[in-house]
Structures are given as C-alpha cells and as structure tokens.
Amino acid sequence: MFTVAALYKFAPFPDPAALRGPLKALCDAEDLCGSLLLAPEGINGTVAGSRAGIDRLIAHIKALPGCADLEWKESTASERPFRRMKVRLKREIVTLGVEGVDPTASVGTYVAPAEWNALIEAPDVAVIDTRNDYEVAIGTFEGAVNPETASFGEFPAWWEANKDRFTGKRVAMFCTGGIRCEKSTNYLKSQGVEEVFHLQGGILKYLEEVPEAESTWQGECYVFDQRVSVGHGLKPGDYQLCHACGRPVSAADRTAPAYEEGVQCPACVGEYSEADRARFRERQHQLALARARASSAE
C-alpha cells in the first residue's frame, strides 16, 4: 500500500533552484514517485511512497523557509500511482499569470468542510468552481458555476467578462485541494469583491470529512495521479485516463465506438492526425508487450 501526500505551501523562496537538488536526492533515496514544483512563491505537488519515505519528505519540506506550518492531505493507493519522480522549477506553483497576486498577503475566508453546505445554500452566495472544464465534467457541487476554462490561467479573463453577474453576491470558491483558491480569492479581493470565501482543504477534504448522506457533492473528483478520480471517503472512482489527451474517461465512454485504448476517446477523437494516432497505437502496443513480459516473469 502506497501513502499519497498532496501538499502545497506559499512561502518566499528567493532561490528555489538551490532547494531542488537536496529535495530530489531525498525523493530518489526513498524511492518516492510523483511530482513537486518549486517557484519563488513556494512549493506544490503530489508524492507517493512508503509511510517512512513520506514522513521524511514532509519533515524535509517543513524545514524549508516559511514551511514550518505546512499542511498536507493523505490518501492511499494499492498500486504505484506515478511512474517516476519529478522535481521541477516553475515561475508559479499554480499558474494564474497575473502580476501582483500574493496569497501570503491576503486570501478569502476559509470555510471548514462541515460548514460548507450551509454557506453555499445561502441565497446571497454564488458558488464558483475554479477547476478546468474536464475536471468539472465528472463532478462538482450542486448549483456551482462552471467557468468552462481549459486552464487556470483563463480564469481572470472569464471573471472580467462575467463579473457583473455576481454584483451584490458573496462569492464562495472551491478547487481540488485548495491551492487554486488561494490565488483566485486573492485576485477577486484585488478586484474589489468584499466577501470571498473558499473551501478549506478543497474538495478532497470535504469528501474525506463530510458523510455521503449529508454531502452536496455530485459525481467524482478528478485527481492528478493514476487513480484518476475519487469519491466519498476518498475511495478510488470509476474513471480511467485517456492516454492520448489526458482527460478522464467514464465506463460509458469506454464502450463508445470512438474509444480506442491509449489512442483516442470520444472527447479527443477529432483532435489528432492519423500520424499521431499511429504513434499512440505503437506506444500502446509497447505497453502491452511490457505488461506481458512482466506477467510472465512473475
């Protein structure tokens, strides 16, 4: 059983490149898998490994400048959820693309999962899902607004075009683990929205803590690892990943005539050339051969 830790921390890292080497060395020594992003604004990532390995990683990160109060969310996976370990340098740990957005200065009001239902059911509250459209498609909160963005960087333009819809409303925002809301609530406050709230710990914390019978969540939650989606209690969901486009694929999608494992799904059938699909088929063929060799060696 693998322990999976999802974490982020906004903290000033004047020289994130100097932090990369020791962090990667520890991950390799502990045989961890997943990805970590380092930027001048902090750290973000999801990593899996043994209980002891994850504990050592968390201790290392908490010793970094400004990270002593790091919070993280854990789940488990029965199979290795990532193929390899990556520690990368980025301009932002979650890309909004707006200069001056600073979650360490101010963010929206945190709302605990147990208090979230009461907030979003209030008639003067507008609920906005800050995730990408393909994530929203497999699950969201009842009544939430979907900005239909392909990336988080499109959110500011969407807000500028739609802000008049929210005049006089309190705004409640949510995302998978909370990181996007740290930036989006800071951004809305800079745009003059006075009452902004966000779900503390994100959807994952809500699904972990709120009993299914009391939940207003509908569907499953997309996660960025080999589990693809999780449901209440963070139990693995029913979706798989299209290895051509990276979108989640439902059981119904997998029975559609347009679906070909590793090559295309109904959502991306028109997005690739015949040369692309030939390349995907060859990749899928090599993966099948590798699985067969591994199975015969057991």
Summarize the helix and strand pattern as letters: EHEEHEEEHEHEHEHEHEEEEEH
Number of beta strands: 15
From the structure provided, what is the oligomeric state, counting identical versus distinct chains?
Answer: single chain
What class would the helix/strand composition place it in?
Answer: alpha/beta
Over the alpha carbons, how many angstroms does the gyration radius reach?
20 Å
Poorly predicted parts: none
Major sheet: 5 strands, mixed
- Kindly report the average pLDDT value: 93
Index terms:
alpha/beta, 4-stranded parallel beta sheet, 15 strands, 298 residues, 5-stranded mixed beta sheet
Summarize the structure in words:
This protein has about 300 residues and is of the alpha/beta class. The chain has eight helices and 15 strands. The protein has helices at about 15-30, 50-60, 115-120, 135, 155-160, 180-190, 200-210, 275-295; strands at about 1-10, 35-40, 40-50, 70-75, 85-90, 110, 125-130, 140, 170-175, 195-200, 215-220, 220, 230, 240, 250. Strands 4-1-3-2-5 form a five-stranded mixed beta sheet, with helices on one face. It has a four-stranded parallel beta sheet with strand order 6-10-9-7. The chain is globular. The mean pLDDT is about 95.
